[in-house]
Amino acid sequence: MSPSRKRARLAAAGVATTLATLTTLVTAGSASATTLNGSWAPFSRCPVDDPSMLAADGANVTDTCLTTHASSGTIKLGNTTATTGVTDMQFGVLSGSTASLVSPSGGGLVADPVKIPGGLLGLMCPSKVPVITQICQQLTDNTLNNVIATVQPAGKPSDFDLSAGLGSGKPILTLPVKIHLQNPFLASTCTIGSDSNPILLKPKNVTAPDTSFARFDGNGTPDPDNGDLLRIDLTGASVSDDSFAVPGATGCGGLGLLDAAVDLKTGLPSAAGKNKLVLNSASTYLGGLYDPSSFAPTSGRKMSAFWHSAAH
Predict the structure, then answer these.
(1) pLDDT band of 240, cuts 50, 70, 90
(2) In the predicted model, is pLDDT for residue 131 greater than 90?
(3) pTM, rounded to two decimals
(4) How many separate domains does the chain show?
(5) E strands within the chain?
(6) I want to staple 172 with a disulfide (CB 3.0 to 4.6 A). Which of 5, 164, 259, 262 is the partner?
(7) For the stretch 33-51, what's the b/e string if a residue is b when 16 or more beta carbons lie within 10 angstroms of its beta carbon?
(8) Domain span holding position 128
(9) Are the C-beta atoms of 287 and 64 separated by less than 8 Å?
(10) Does residue 148 carry a pLDDT above 70?
(11) What are the boundaries of the signal sequence (predicted)?
């Protein structure tokens, strides 16, 4: 297999999926990370030891590591717009007749919490409902007023379009999410959207990414000519979606009164076209064996061994 075909094989199998996952940059989760050397560094949470990744044979199925990092963006839900913080997303990618994602232990998505502008005062107050009015009168303390929002998965991604990730203006996937709202007055179950009625993001590239390729050795040392691994870097992409609808709040307490208060002030439910996700310049990295077939039928186990050899 020629070098260009090897690069094309890895890119075609994973690049579009990589770009697709840029859309989840505001999603939050938790997972432990391992510090890795050299070119392996971005893939600190790659699930190389997941049974499905280890089972990749290098002939029919290949496994690669995927990570996306963004430092800023905005999300508008109804009448409220919030700035997103640093977000890191990592998955394993299994590529065969189709491409699928494998989450690391603890979740594939880690993001800085988002503080809702105005806090609970901005979400619920003023109100003519006595219970809500009493809460509003107690919100002079910033600790009581602060509302922290985290976007969480509410189902599995679907509708991957491999070609859309290479260009711009075309939805890449459908991503179900819900937004968890945290405040001392809100129940721990308070969310905007839910597993049964999620927000369905269908983001697309506003601009196509810049792409570069680099080979490296198993321990992470760059090796342009003979490296067993290949890293594809996709940088500078912008992502946006204004097609999604936002359901009302649920599980916020007060026999539904707090749900209604959040909905009324925030403008929820909010129809498609009135909400928007914007992710500023993002960096995505895809790493895997340069020639998986040369390690068949145990390429998945070889990938895992290489990854662990770079840990320190």
Answers:
(1) confident
(2) no
(3) 0.75
(4) 1
(5) 62-70, 73-77, 80-84, 87-95, 99-102, 109-111, 114-115, 148-153, 175-182, 191-192, 199-201, 204-207, 210-216, 229-241, 249-250, 276-289
(6) 164
(7) eeebeebbebbbbbbbbbe
(8) 3-309
(9) yes
(10) yes
(11) 1-33
